[in-house]
Amino acid sequence: MTRVFRIVWAVAVIGQTGSAAERPNFLIILADDCTYNDLPIYGGQNARTPNIDRLAGQGTVFNRAYLCEAMCQPARAALYSGQFPMRNGCAWNHSASFSTTQSMPHYLRSLGYRSGLAGKVHVQPDKAFPFERIDGFDPNCVRNPTRLHDVAPIRGFMTRDREQPFCLVVALVEPHVPWVMGDPSQYPPEKIKLPKNIADTPPTRSDFGRYLAEITYMDGQVGDILEALEETGQAGNTLVVFSSEQGAQFPGCKWTNWDTGLHTALIVRWPGKVAAGGRTDAMIQWVDVLPTLIEVAGGDPSRHTFDGTSFLSVLLGKTTSHRKYAYGVHNNVPEGPSYPIRTVSDGRYRYIRNLRPDEIYIEKHLMGFSGDGSLNSLYWATWVADTWTNPHTYMLVKRYMRRPAEQLYHTAADPYELNDLADDQASARIKARLSAELDRWLASQGDPGVPQDTHEALKAARDGKHLHSPK
How many CA atoms lie within 13 A of 108 on its CB side? Predict the structure, then answer.
């Protein structure tokens, strides 16, 4: 940047957003496939995460943060665009958003920021997500083993131009399968306390221990990233966000609309601005993050077509609430036969609508096979075998594969959503209220339901010829 252009740029930006010193940097750290309540800060009883715990003590923990879809690519497209899947175009895994989609680099560039992304990308096309690519972290979530990380490139990005604030996303690939990183000997299978929605079989315990080891490995990466930020001398003027993405690759978590699929961890640290050691019940979704960053940067998110809204007032302690409802969708494409699901939660109760209750639910990776037909995991077969003698395992397998048209859960009292209240007359008014709200949201999104959630629709999206356009 030439000296003359730098002066012109600085004058324009300061006139729009205030002095450069008032605009913090943004550092967003994402885990990959980590069920939120497997983390100790959300009650997890197994994993050791000293760095995440420390970050939580320095910032505010959101108790009710949600994705809109428990698959990697749709979730990330929503985070970066501030728009739900139907609006940005990415409603399926391994697809693409509309080429006209605007995202974090576009909006923050106009506010004087440079935006970089290290690690897993998994959004496209580049025109819609023009992040500067930063080396140092493995972009391949299924590599075995994961490449060792190097913080030098992200440190270089942070310090490259101190006159221009940065937004840096570091998208880690743990604890996504294969669970091969970390030290599983720290988690002896016989000592693991399995969550209530996970069947208790020896292969499951073994896999869960390797998953926990990857959580601890990921936590070490978080520590290294935060240390690199400290070394730049900019930690005091950087808003840090940590989130865990969707649930892990166990039945009832990833690729579902249950709470353990869509509920995500969220910690925000902003020294001198956000309360240290705080927690909030304010409900937010990932689509709310970008509008918040824009407002923090001095912009006006209401000028843009977002599905999310800024929760800056929650961060600053000016209010204790944000949105009334959180929404979710799922289609299972291309991870198995089409199985469209829609959901809405008010933070206490969750209503789920299965649009094809006549079909059985099949997810190829989780049930043991990779895309090439090779074995991926063996624990699911032991779940099925255990159904012959274990009523709880039978319930879990049936719950996963055969789903009624409607489901209702009192999530606040039943966090693993094992007790379906859809036919409970005492809960009928709650079900009716949530069902009506889901209808309203689906109409606002122009969601056609079953026709949207097909392999044909995915193919069209991959070819840039989406079958359905946003409203």
Answer: 30
Q: Which of 282, 218, 245 is nearest to 61 (CA)?
A: 282
* Fold of the 25-324 domain: Alkaline Phosphatase, subunit A (3.40.720)
**What one-letter code names the amino acid at 469?**
S
As given in the structure block, the two tokens for residue 66 are 């949600």
pLDDT at 103 over 80: yes
On whether the CB atoms of residues 95 and 106 are closer than 8 A, the answer is no
Residue with tokens 């959300």: 42
Predicted structure pTM score: 0.94
Q: Where are the alpha helices (DSSP H) in 149-288?
A: 152-159, 202-231, 259-262
Asked if residues 365 and 376 have their Cβ atoms less than 8 Å apart, the reply is yes
Angle at 160 between CA 24 and CA 242, to 5 degrees: 45
Straight-line distance from the first to the last Cα atom of the chain, in angstroms, rounded to the nearest whole number:
39
| Residue range(s) of every CATH 3.40.720.10 domain in the chain | 25-324
Task: Residue 302: count other Cβ atoms within 10 Å of its Cβ.
Answer: 11
Instruction: Please tell me the predicted confidence (pLDDT) of residue 308.
Output: 98
- Pairing relation of β-strands 114-119 and 278-285? unpaired
